[in-house]
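Loading example: each entry is read as two labelled lines plus one structure line.
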Amino acid sequence: MTRARLIVALGAPLVLSACGSGGSPPATPTPTPAPSATVTPISYNVENCFTQTIPGTGGQTLRGLIVPDTLKLDLTRPALFPNGRKLEDPVIDITLAALFLDFTVTGQSPMTFANLPLNPPGNDKPFSSTFPFLAPPQGSPQLAATTGTSFDFRTDPDSAYTNVDRMGMPAVATALVGSSTKLAYNDATPSADAAGQFAADETLQLTHLTDAIGDDLTSLGLKLCARTS
Amino acid sequence: MRGISGPVPIAGVAAAISAALLFVPGAPNRAADHLDPPGRTDPTIDATPDLPADIADIFAWDTDDSVRVIVTFGGPNDPNRPASYDRDVLYKIMISTAPPADTPDITIRARFGRGKNPNEWGVRFEGVPGVTGAIEGPVETTLIKDGVKARAGLFDEPFFFDLQGFRESRSMGKVRFDNRRNFFNGNNDTALVLEIPRNRFAGATMPLGFWITTSRIGGQI
């Protein structure tokens, strides 16, 4: 990405302190100096990240999108994650923006990271515009036969099965649910989400994430949705 | 990051984010839902990972005429491995169409079953809105009934994300993030794909809410 494109993507130049020519972006950043022993770590309150309105979502908040943990699709609005999820949507970059950025700041939006982009902008094989939409498999795997008219399906009731996994919004269970809570989360239902069973853990995990990089993102000229406390 | 001036290179933003995602306990090391929960599906954690029951992703979007739903699982898998069909796993695609948003108004159940000849597998979808009875037939085949298209099969892994850059940043202590690198390149998933006429959701009184669960007969492996 060129410097000009990066500036456009972020909405404003990210002018930081100290030295540097301002020329072509280096391949890797300047090494971070060792922190001083006297530096006091910043502690963040992430509640605003959960409650701020996310632009382009019809007034949704992060909490409204992830609780309950379902993928919401408003049929009256264009489909683009987090309104539904198309195959080509840059969900991770959009999710990172929703987790960290203050959307009241001019130039910051859910697409801030996707416009760079941080992650690969697309799949390695093109999707199809026609059914079944996914790309054909990679390599030369043996595919099942396309024959047969009689198959041996189970008919057991749901109660005979034991939960293994659940998913709604991408990356929620992996990003905002701690290791010690993962099995309980996957065994639970969206009703447990709505009842607030995992709210404290989600806040804790986002706090950990923000504590780890909040100052770095701020140094890059980005305004955090989290507040210092 | 300090000591940089002027526009920040992409690597700087990536480094900051990758550092957070790597060093925080419980933070993602897979993203989406691949290999999660690790205690049941990740071979680096679980000696008997349940690949067929491991949800990778759910996608749902609409067009002027239809609502499309894709569930991927059993990946990212080696391109030379076959699809993950398992008779003992139940896939439930749940859709909430009316308040409360945390309960399903539509439940689509999908199962796999062996055919009578070697390498024959069938898929059965039940509970698809507007469909009388089940949609049933061989995998790797587009099945059509009552205006709904359904298919199960092996496909390219559709998720894109530089997980390798995250891992290398952690192990090497330097920025390795590269938006030209997709960790999921060259891998496959098994998938369930549905295209349902949009008018089947005409009665919805709120945004549709989708989620998927997997469960196994006889308990977890």
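Residues 1-9, 22-29, 169-175 of chain B have pLDDT under 50 and may be disordered.
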